[in-house]
Write a structure and sequence with these properties.
By secondary structure, this protein is α/β, with parallel strands linked by helices. α2 links the parallel β5 and β6.
Length: 196
């Protein structure tokens, strides 16, 4: 498939990879080929020029252009940054939806570079504790992942990226309250995503 971009609501989304460090129990990948009529399983990963070309073919002024597909975009960090630089050069609002494990995936702190081209970052916290996170998300990084997500979010806030943590609506009230506290301590918002 060559759906390197797709639209949803008022945004254009960029599907850079199908690689992910997690195997989340709620992930759309486990029960769907894509979103709407757009199949998002890639036969190959696109290069920078292919993505920019697909963006340039649309004459719609989207609210945001979002790095979010059937994988974790930070696996293709260098390509993502090049595309984001292009988007900023044409005055677009750029968002990254991420599992927050980009520093581990890239073996370095990527947040300063993100701050130069990413306006908004939405980070999937998904659970209040490392144990619960590992149960839900089955990360290749194990229970270490949860703390790394929180550290990543803190760094994003420090670099003045508008930052949101998100959870699914399948958590208990107590778990949701704990996630709210985590977000407040970091200084960012908490968004509750709908499982349906």
């Amino acid at each position: 498939m060559t759906n390197f971009t797709y639209h949803y609501q008022n945004n254009l989304y960029i599907n850079l990879t199908n690689r992910c460090s997690n195997d989340c129990s709620f992930c759309i990948r486990s029960y769907s080929k894509g979103i709407g009529d757009d199949e998002l399983w890639l036969s190959r990963e696109p290069d920078v020029h292919e993505v920019i070309e697909q963006i340039e073919t649309t004459n719609i002024m989207y609210d945001q252009i979002v790095f979010c597909g059937f994988g974790e975009s930070t696996y293709r960090f260098d390509e993502m940054i090049k595309i984001a630089k292009f988007l900023k050069s044409i005055g677009r609002v750029v968002r990254l939806n991420t599992n927050g494990l980009g520093n581990l995936i890239n073996n370095r702190d990527i947040t300063k570079e993100l701050s130069e081209v990413i306006d908004i970052v939405s980070i999937s916290l998904n659970a209040p504790t490392p144990e619960r996170y590992n149960e839900i998300c089955k990360s290749i990084f194990g229970e270490r992942a949860h703390g790394e997500i929180i550290a990543f979010a803190k760094k994003c806030v420090e670099h003045d990226i508008k930052t949101t943590l998100s959870i699914m609506d399948n958590l208990t009230e107590k778990e949701t309250a704990k996630c709210q506290l985590i977000a407040e301590k970091i200084g960012c918002e908490l968004k509750i995503r709908n499982m349906a």
